[in-house]
Amino acid sequence: MLDEQGRLHPGCNVESDSYGLTICAERVAIFTALAAGARELVALAVSVPADGRRRTADEDEPGTAGRMPCGACRQIMVEYLAPEAVVLVDGLGEFRPGDLLPEAFRLR
User: Fold this and answer.
1) Which member of 26, 59, 84, 94 is catalytic?
2) Which of 30, 41, 45, 70 is such that its CA lies 20 to 30 A from the CA of 5?
3) Is residue 90 part of a domain?
4) Cα–Cα distance, 46 to 33 (Å, whole number)
5) Catalytic residue at 94?
6) Which residues constitute the domain of residue 34?
7) What are phi and psi of 91, to 5 degrees?
8) What is the mean pLDDT of each run of 10 residues along the chain (108 residues)?
9) Residue 108 lies in a domain
10) Residue 106: inside a domain, yes or no?
11) What is the pLDDT of residues 88-98, one digit of tens each?
């Protein structure tokens, strides 16, 4: 996660045996940035093997579906990233938050 001051805020998956309590790296990075006082979040890089596990050098590259952020992360991106922020998904390209979730939930 990159904020308006050029500071990087890392994130990692935090897994739980109760799957619903798991939190993705994207949300960890966003919340870390907010907790550090970031006011404008301008870029987010996402990189993960499709099956979520580390690969050895002789294994094939993972598919693309597992690289995309989940719906919960997309909602948080729409809420907290600047509309023009870049979301770079490794191997798939650049997106804007609104492109990832065009019908995001809104209170207003």
Assistant:
1) 26
2) 70
3) yes
4) 15
5) no
6) 2-100
7) 85, -5
8) 96 91 95 96 86 51 72 96 96 94 89
9) no
10) no
11) 998 889 999 99
